[in-house]
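For reproducibility, we list the full input for the S-adenosylmethionine complex.
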Amino acid sequence: MREPRPQFAEERETKIGETGHHFRHCNANFRCSNSTAPPRSLQVPPPHQAPQYVDEDCADFLPWLRQKAGVEISSVLSIGKSIYGRSLFACKPIQAGDCILKVPYSVQLAPDNLLPSISSLLGEEVTDVAKLALVILVHQKLGQASEWAPYISCLPTIAEMHSTIFWSDEELKMIRISSLYQETLKHKVQIEKDFSSIKHVLDRFPEFFEDVTLHNFKHAYNLVESRAWISTRGVSMIPFADFFNHDGFSETDVLSAEFEQVSEVTSSSLRIMSIHSRPFLAILGVVIADENYAPGDQVLIRYGKFSNARLLLDFGFILPCNKYDKVCLESNGSCRLSKTFFYQSLIIKRSIFLLPWMHHNPLVQVEVSVPHRDHLRAMKLDLLDKHTTPPLKGVNDFSSLGNGFLVMEVKSSSGKGRGIPQSLRALARVVCCTSSQVLVIYKDKIFVCSPELQDLATEATQNDGGLARIPLKNRAREVQAHQFLRLRFDHIIDNYNAALESLTHHSSLLGKHARRMQVARGLLIGELRVLESASAWLKNYCETLIVKDNNQKT
Ligand SMILES: C[S@@+](CC[C@H](N)C(=O)[O-])C[C@H]1O[C@@H](n2cnc3c(N)ncnc32)[C@H](O)[C@@H]1O
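The corresponding predicted structure, in tokenized form, follows.
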């Protein structure tokens, strides 16, 4: 799920699902953005070019929805087609602030639409996503006999969906270097788990589920993940509203910018929930235009501040130059508090929903080891154990990336370097403290001690407890620590370049596979950009320190 998007949850720097915010229910406001922004996806031409304003396939959809709702849903939007699939276009001039869409709860599909005879058999572990997937499967089976048929028939087929959960093993290999690879495997396992937990119920209702395979279930599941929103009814499919496409270039923060306004000024319902531990915010029912639109403009919303990996996993597309791309350097293993793992390796992963029960070996692994022969090893481990806070707490795209260092693009190599987590730099500072050992004899025992590490410990205690958060007084050591990090980044960069190089040789791929290869390349290129920006920043940082040092000496 995602953001206010279809399941529109916000991908923010804080884990929304854990903030404890709970908004009175409501009709939420979505700000929409005009499709005159630059092209957004790999699929050219841009969406505002020659849109087909009326989607003939949906001819009976709006009259049906209006009749079912008993009210006008929107008088200013029409359903059309763009390169993004079904899309919403302004059919009349729209002014900022206009309410452009209202979808009553009565025409939303939620888990409570499941027949009580079915839902009563489902265990508590069955998620809302899985339940809503079952609702979709029931209506798919009913076909034209379903009262939701005009909507269900508008949903994309599995062949039209490109989430990496539908990629073949061969296709997935193309993104093996990215953490999305692990995320995808983990997510597939989660879906399989959900399927096994409902299988006995499916068997009890052959009239609805006789032919349902894991494949069909996955399809329905991803329909929910790529289109559902969160409402007070839980995860909901909102017909018509789920035809909005995503605009990653929009500066409008659908979630947070609207947040207070919605909860305070309108009677809207904003609610933050978490599906599969993924943070997302959802809003519902009412969409307010945030800018003016001329007839024919595609009206887009921002699903969330999603990196390409997340867009690809949930929605099956990526954006070129996605400013929300991130890379995660993750401490290895399932147990980040393990001193050994914490020190011994850092793994670079792209950030997305990594689920904790998966332990496949990541392809890119960077050793940041404290050699066993390091006399300070025990002390370093102890210090880190005492002072290091979980580096990724609350900042990850993916629920399971609790162990890593989330690296975002550093906009300027001479800037503040905010894309490189302090905790990662701190780790490098500690790891690089390798000298100044002294032996202390205490109670007839010999202890190895380091004034340098001791200083860090004192400094941490005197400040906020964070270890090595400020530059080391010893400038040469500070440079050494950052050069050490840069080496690791450069190693990963080399691996990304090699992976990209290998993708260019997949010329035999056709159709869907060729498209997926293009997407895989786009994903890796975006992550490489983040890595290169970090490396450039580290280089600049070291050079600046060296110059300062030289100036002081002369
Ligand atoms: C909520 S639905 C939007 C309506 C959808 N286009 C349809 O045909 O029903 C989300 C899906 O739309 C497509 N989509 C939305 N925004 C996109 C974008 N910026 N670039 C490419 N595809 C996009 C993706 O297939 C995504 O899974």
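The longest strand covers residues 77-82. The chain has two domains: 16-314, 326-553. Both points were considered when choosing residues for closer inspection.
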